[in-house]
Write a structure and sequence with these properties.
It is a single chain. This protein has 231 residues and is an alpha/beta fold. It has one domain: LmbE-like (Rossmann fold, 3-Layer(aba) Sandwich), CATH 3.40.50. It contains 7 helices and 7 strands, in the order βαβαβαβαββαααβ. It has a 7-stranded mixed beta sheet with strand order 3-2-1-4-5-7-6, sandwiched between helices. Helix 2 links the parallel strand 2 and strand 3. The longest helix is centred in the middle third of the chain and has 17 residues. The chain is globular and about 50 Å long. The termini are far apart. The model has no long low-confidence stretch (mean pLDDT 95).
Length: 231
């Protein structure tokens, strides 16, 4: 198992990319190791198949330069039923990969799975630093230095933004890999994702950029204050 600089976690393949593909692209370009964990295969998605979604995720990874991608195969729309197992598995992965930063979905979202993952990751990050936590005791305790929350469907004022202007087109190319989700095809049913969703992502990143004095930015929320040694 490779150690990572950033571990980004989502419920479904494409969640992480919607909220943080630009940030991950920048990290990869700096030579940092980034990994993505999807907790489910999104088997209940209205469009596409599990097999196609995995192909799309692999194509996205090629652009992102991901070091590793994991999928725990928990049930789509059933994360609360496997909550404790999910926390334990995420703790193990954090201890194995020892990321400096963990990214999770913002805790308020129209999709309940995104909210479930947010809670699962928060508990896992905390428990991963407890030496006697009963996950895999062969792995030493480790707690990432930062846990930040990215946006999928909801938007609030971010605590921190990352200037993604230089990689904005790259981010959009990553999202376009998920054609089954974001494009209307012959056998597609209409969903919020294939009805102008990518345009709304562009608007959000442009808004965060305008507020920050750059062209495009991804926003993140922190549940705890940052500590600075100077301004």
């Amino acid at each position: 198992m490779k150690e990572l600089d950033i571990l980004a976690i989502g419920a479904h393949p494409d969640d992480v990319e919607i909220g943080a593909a630009g940030t991950l692209l920048l990290a990869s370009k700096r030579g940092e190791k980034v990994g993505i964990l999807d907790l489910t295969y999104a088997e209940l998605s209205s469009n596409g198949t599990v097999e196609r979604r995995q192909e799309e995720a692999a194509a996205a990874d090629q652009i992102l330069g991901s070091t590793a991608r994991y999928n725990f195969g928990f049930p789509d729309r059933g994360l609360e039923k496997v909550r404790e197992d999910a926390i334990s598995r995420v703790v193990d992965l954090i201890r194995e990969t020892r990321p400096r930063v963990v990214l999770a979905p913002y805790w308020q979202d129209r999709h309940p799975d995104h909210e479930s993952v947010s809670r699962i990751v928060r508990e896992a990050v905390f428990s991963s630093g407890i030496r006697k936590y009963s996950a895999n005791l062969s792995l030493p305790a480790y707690r990432p230095s930062k846990l930040l929350y990215y946006f999928i469907n909801s938007t609030v004022k971010p605590d921190v933004v990352v200037d993604i202007t230089d990689v904005y087109e790259g981010k959009m190319n990553v999202l376009r890999c998920y054609r089954s989700q974001f494009e209307q095809e012959a056998d597609s049913v209409a969903t919020p994702l294939n009805n102008g969703y990518l345009e709304s992502v562009t608007y959000r990143e442009r808004l965060f950029g305008q507020e920050s004095g750059v062209m495009y930015a991804e926003g993140f929320v922190s549940a705890v204050p940052y500590v600075l040694d100077r301004l």
